Amino acid sequence: MEAWLLVAQLATLVLVLAVIHRPLGDYLAWTFTSAKDFRVERGLYRVVGVDPDSEQSWGAYLRGVLAFSLIGVLFVYALQRLQAVLPYSLGFPAVPEGLSFNTAASFVANTNWQSYSPDVTLGYTVQIAGLAVQNFVSAGVGLAVAIALVRGFARRNTGTIGNFWVDLTRATLRILLPLAVVSAVVLIAGGVIQNFNGFTDVTTLTGGSATVPGGPVASQEAIKMLGNNGGGFYNTNSAHPFENPTPWTNLFEIVLMLAIPFSLPRTFGKMVGDTRQGYAILAAMGVLFVASLAALTAFEIGGAGTGPQLAGGAMEGKEQRFGIAASTLFATTSTITSTGAVNSMHDSFTSLGGMMTLFNMMLGEIAPGGIGAGLYGILIIAVITVFIAGLLVGRTPEYLGKKLGPREIKLASLYILATPTLVLVGTALSFAIPPIREDVESTSIWNPGLHGFTEVLYAFTSAANNNGSAFAGLTANTPWFNTALGLAMLFGRFIPIVLVLALAGSLAAQGKVPVTAGTLPTHRPQFVGLLVGVIVIVVALTYFPVLALGPLAEGLQ
Amino acid sequence: MSNLPSQIAAGLPGALRKLSPRLMWRNPVMFIVEVGAAFTTVLAIAQPFVGGSDSLAFTWAIAVWLWLTVLFANLAESVAEGRGKAQAATLRSTRTSTMAAKVVGYDPAGDPAALRASTQQVASADLTLGDTVVVVAGELIPGDGDIVDGIASIDESAITGESAPVVRESGGDRSAVTGGTRVLSDRVVVRITSKPGETFVDRMIRLVEGASRQKTPNEIALNILLASLSIVFLIVVLTLGPIAGYSDAAPSIAVMVALLVCLIPTTIGALLSAIGIAGMDRLVQHNVLAMSGRAVEAAGDVTTLLMDKTGTITYGNRRAAEFRTLDGVLAHELREAAALSSLSDPTPEGKSIVDLAATQGFERPASVDGEIVPFTAQTRMSGVDFADGRQIRKGAGSAVTAWAKETGTAGSTLFAELEESTDRIASLGGTPLVVAVREPGAPARLLGVVYLKDIVKEGMASRFAELRSMGIRTVMITGDNPLTAKAIAEEAGVDDYLAEATPEDKLALIRQEQEGGRLVAMTGDGTNDAPALAQADVGVAMNTGTSAAKEAGNMVDLDSDPTKLIDIVAIGKQLLITRGALTTFSIANDVAKYFAIIPAMFAAVFPGLGLLNIMGLHSPASAILSAVIFNALVIIALIPLALRGVKYRPMSASRILSRNILVYGLGGVIAPFIGIKIIDLVVSLIPGF
Amino acid sequence: MASTRGFARPYWVALRYMIVATVVLGIAYPVAVLGIGQLALPAQANGSIVTVDGEPAGSSLIGQSFTDADGEALPQWFQSRPSAAGYDASASVASNYGPENPDFIAEIEARKAAIAASDGVDPADIPVDALTTSGSGLDPHISPAYANEQVARVADARGIPVARVQTLVDSFTQGRDLGFFGEPTVNVLQLNVALSQLEG
Predict the structure, then answer these.
(1) Nearest-CB residue to A8 (from C45, C105, C180)
(2) Which positions in chain B touch A514 (Cβ < 8 Å)?
(3) Which of A419, B39, B310, B536 registers the highest number of CB atoms within 10 A of its CB?
(4) In terms of domains, do C92 and C156 share one?
(5) Which residues in chain B are closer than 8 Å to A425, comparing Cβ atoms?
């Protein structure tokens, strides 16, 4: 029964995405290739002091990204520290330093890891003027960097890859903002609230009292999903009925998470002048998505484990209105897109089910991954795949007419090195340094035994891959986790961006090798299969031991 | 070539020498293994005193097998180098110092043959660029150079292995001589074109010994990828201790070293340099010298092949295929006239005319009473003036027609008919030779046309089809007119042609192809080919060619066989495929190793992980040791493949990929499951495992 | 303007950009959505408030507990699912129990025993949603199975025929969206409000 529901829901999702990816993907391509600036954009460029017609080298582009992100961190940090004096703060005090840093890093890095419980920490001003703004612009940065890389493939013999400020502006104003407004209204229609009412106390039927919270939720929820941010307005995120009231809003939010990531391959294909290349990438993303979804759902329906067996099913941490299929669909979407929103508690999933959400993030957020970040992530793996496959056909490997030489491979190798290093070193340090281990085991870990280890592993995996979801039993608001996860998020976001932009610059400077019968075709099912194989093998080889020591050891009993 | 076991025995001392960390450092993957081996050895030595969780036999066994892993890797390289060394030894024997007669004050204008100039005996090693020497029959040529005067037959077997002597003469494209080759006849004056120690043979020795082998871009890129994979696995293993420590399941250091060595791509790391050396070696066995490994790899990337028509696509010489008479001329008249005028023509064309005539009934007279009129560039015809005043002329249509008109021949229909006939032959790719005869006192009489045909070598069309399937475009270069060129291009099956090509045209064509991102390969021998050879990504100079051509190209074909370009392309591809295949195999192997080692490491603490022991290995100790042994033995097992190269058959990239993924990817996943299981069955017989 | 050249230039641009972005995305955008929501969809935008006798009694989307002051379940009301948040909507929270957590197992055992005792059912027949906490701690729904399971107890406690209560439950049972999205549900607050009006 659940399996049938899943198939029906998945089929609906596929249908919706099949309909929208084409116009949306083409619109994205137009947005980033059109020479025309809107009047409001020209006004913006004048105000901030940018010449929209000047093209940037990859270095200049990168300096823009880093400067903007640093200013963003400082901005969000300052807003939290000043919360006590800001309007609409619901009486909450200033956020402590460590937590403020962690949250600022988190939202600027498009991660939206939340070491805090928003219900009891943040007023409306920090949420909308600090966090929601980053929800837009951090997504815009991801999109801009992806487009810069695509330009690297599309252009030839040039030193420039676009203008960061123009890309950011167009991503935000032409794509995210209009979609967010429409989506927010749709969500309100489904029951998501949008007010500044604060907490309202009511008298219940039993004569007791109950609280109805308020807040500008819909505007936040829309961009949280659309920008693959995932930071909940409320502590329980999209499980909260005011964030995600009905099964159909649940599907709508899933569509919002997938809309841009699954359209970007089309954009990519359009911009490099061969949509088949985009569809090959899309196919690899789709295969991984469906396989992962099937596995997670199977594990949850199976309901293995002492607790679920005793209760008669894996419903702990899941909402009745969603049940298992709508929860696993959401969980897969959220963890495989770098959104990190949850409509059910991953900490309470079955051991192997929880492992699947972990595995989704370990894939590197590429199937389809976060907005922009997913596309550049999978293109990096495609570069590695083409390199090995290119050798196998006896040619200096080339992808989309670009030779993959030592420089390109060095950048791609460092990229695939970065996140596993952050995840494994962060997790290991949590247990290697005695006072930290003491603190982690006594304060942070919630579930005893192997599951507790998985909570820590999940935290670093989520932070380094910029997902933001959690095995939320973990108490992360400690000096160690605020600092370590904050750094993991920043490094996990910006080291790859540096490498991607450098690669974009190096590709753009190359000419283009023409396609011949001796060229490895990168648009056929053969390549899709190879790409999926490389992704799975590289991830499995990197993380097999830690998974064995966490969810596998717990689940295989 | 000796067999592999004896090569391995010969390579052993070198392999041991290579254990020096200073040398190992250059191969990061194997350096990690060596450090691990040393570390485990220290652990094994210390274990009796400080204790440990593993049995002493286990720690020692791991240490020994890790050393063997390093040794096997070095052995692969030594064996590959050893093959080159044998060739180098042969070459070195040609380099033995000889005395040379150096001309003092050579005067090229006044005394080109240096008959009057005085000579002085110097050691060949002391000769330098620009010196001039005299070499006579029986002497060794003391250094690389160009013949500036004289002609000689030369035995080049020392470098080409070809025993038949070759003729070298001054001027033209056959003037280059190589140091160490022997003059068999005559006397030549040679200008030395190489510096001491940088002669062709010197370079050749360095190349085959691998001493001057520089890493190619692809090799560097692959090394980077392998190094970063090694770092990932290093981090995986280094972090495993504290992580497993949380569950009190931290494995022993020896086990973690074993895991690390099994995970890092040792198979390809061990064989990578052997593959490169063997690739160069294969070229040498084809009698091709590549000046750099980069050139070999570029050969695999070639997308455009420029081939000279003559000698490559067609046999060097045109042959007479048909006599076509004009209206009113009897067949035997034309046949006899053509044959008589060709009797003393030594060129292959001339001979082929006589041969053709003979098959049609022409009888060769004992002697011809007359005077030969040789072909000159001015007259563009040749012929014979008989003692009785009869004249026969044969040559280019315009030249013979002009001669006939001079003698008073008239008749526009006749000339029109002739022109039609020559055009038809040209359009078929042939060369028309017009034959005319003139009785004394009378105007010349046009007899007809000899159809000289370019004979396309057999099997060329199918080879070009193969190249096309590999994605390589072939362009025929010819001095012929476009009509002729087109016909031959069609017959040979090339993709394109460049007619009436000048050296400048060739260069322009290469540049144009390169601007479109294509990689161009070409062969050449003449001095005027040098710019194009230098411009081409792969320029193969013929050994018979000039020094200028050999300098400009990045490969030299000792056999001077232009069709070898196709083999060179295949060798380049094979080199890359072998690297890719072993990389894929190496990484795919890791899957099985995990299934051997992870349950062995942790099943004691987490019995559930015993489910992952799908191979049913005997015990944790035997499982880990078996994985390590497999990892070492697979290097030895793959040395022959690394040296021989993966089989390459020309087909589309897509099909090659499918095949190689199946063999080396899927095979790489499956093979170690079987291998480790078999080794485990053996290891389990050892007490204590 | 020397500082706007060279190294500092992108920071200066970024600062100005951030101010503009905050005004447009941080203020104008939510206020615009607020305007649309309050004008076009005020009921939803303000929390889908359920009123009893004109007084707000809660939100149909936010679950409530139907217990006495000591937290003991009142048998005359349909009970919501267990909640890690105690249905305190000012601080939503989940249990985050892992599948092998001994506390989790103990709580399930305890709930099983309590429900079996209060509702007089075989512990094996208790629906899974009655034994597990939701993700939000504010789940407004229970499964039809759990509602049906409570019918007898509620009817008994209220002294009304089981059939009337059952009819009420059936009318408040919602199918899946489009027939395959989510799970069938019964909204506990709405059911209990109807139940209270049934008597009145």
Answers:
(1) C180
(2) 303, 516-518
(3) B536
(4) yes
(5) 235, 239
Residue with tokens 């006495």: C68
CATH of region B99-198: 2.70.150.10
* Integer Cα distance of B7 and A402 in angstroms: 41
Q: Are the folds of B99-198 and B317-455 the same?
A: no
Contact indicator for C97, A311 with CB cutoff of 8 Å: no
Whether C contacts B, i.e. 3 or more CB pairs less than 8 A apart, is: no
Mutate to test the interface with B, among A392, A439, A442, A453 (most CBs of B within 10 A): A392
Whether B470 sits inside 8 A of A518 (CB atoms) is yes
The answer to whether residue A214 neighbours chain C at the CB level (below 8 Å) is yes
Which residue range forms the structural domain that includes residue C145?
A: 47-199
Contacts with A544 from chain B: Cβ below 8 Å? 594, 598
Q: pLDDT per residue over B97-140, tens digit each? A: 778 888 888 888 888 888 888 888 888 888 888 889 999 888 88
B277/B281 Cα distance (integer angstroms): 6
The Cα A453–Cα A444 span in angstroms is 11
Mutate to test the interface with A, among B657, B662, B670 (most CBs of A within 10 A): B657
Any idea where the domains of chain B sit in the sequence? 4-86+207-285+570-683, 99-198, 303-313+457-558, 317-455
Closest Cα in chain A, distance from residue B315 (Å) = 29
With tokens 């150096």, the residue in question is B102
Segment A536-550, tens digit of pLDDT? 999 999 999 999 999
Quick check: A448 contacting B, CB < 8 Å? no
d(CA B559, CA B162): 8
Nearest to A486 by CA among A439, A434, A422, A399: A422
Q: What type of residue sits at position A188? A: I
Say if residue C114 is in the same domain as residue C174.
Answer: yes
Q: CB–CB of B266/B29 below 8 Å?
A: yes
Q: Is A20 on the interface with C (CB under 8 A)?
A: no
Distances (CA, A) of C29 to A192, A257, A388, B359, C21: 16, 20, 48, 98, 10
Find out whether A257 and A467 touch, Cβ atoms under 8 Å.
Answer: no
Please report the ipTM that was assigned to this predicted complex: 0.95
Q: B317-455 has which CATH code?
A: 3.40.1110.10
> Which tokens go with A36?
């025309």
Q: Give residue A178's domain range.
A: 2-555
Please say whether the beta carbons of B126 and B114 come within 8 A.
no
Total number of domains constituting chain C: 2
**Chain segment A410-428, per-residue pLDDT in tens:** 999 999 999 999 999 999 9
CA angle, A532 then A534 then A538, to 5°: 125
Catalytic residue among B301, B308, B480, B561: B308
Q: Are residues C79 and C130 in the same domain?
A: yes
Q: Which helix (H) or strand (E) holds B144?
A: none
Residue C158 has pLDDT above 50, yes or no: yes
Q: C1-26 burial string, b = 16+ CB within 10 Å, else e?
A: eeeeeeeebbbbbbbbbbeebbebbb
Q: Does domain B303-313+457-558 have CATH number 3.40.50.1000?
A: yes
Tens digit of each residue's pLDDT (9 = 90 or more) over C4-56: 457 788 999 999 999 999 999 999 999 999 999 999 999 999 999 999 989 99
Partner-chain contact A395 B300, CB within 8 Å: yes
- Does B308 qualify as catalytic in the annotation? yes
Annotated binding site of B for ATP: 345, 349, 375-382, 394
Q: Do strands B445-456 and B166-169 pair parallel, antiparallel, or not at all (unpaired)?
A: unpaired
Contact between A137 and C64 using a beta-carbon 8 Å cutoff: no
SS3 string, A416-446, reads HHHHHHHHHHHHHHHHHCHHHHHHHHHHHCC
| A487: contact with B, CB 8 A cutoff | no
Instruction: Give the minimum alpha-carbon distance from C45 to chain A in angstroms, rounded to a whole number.
Output: 4
Considering only the beta carbons, identify the residue of C66, C88, C176 that sits closest to A211: C88
Strand partners, B449: B324, B434
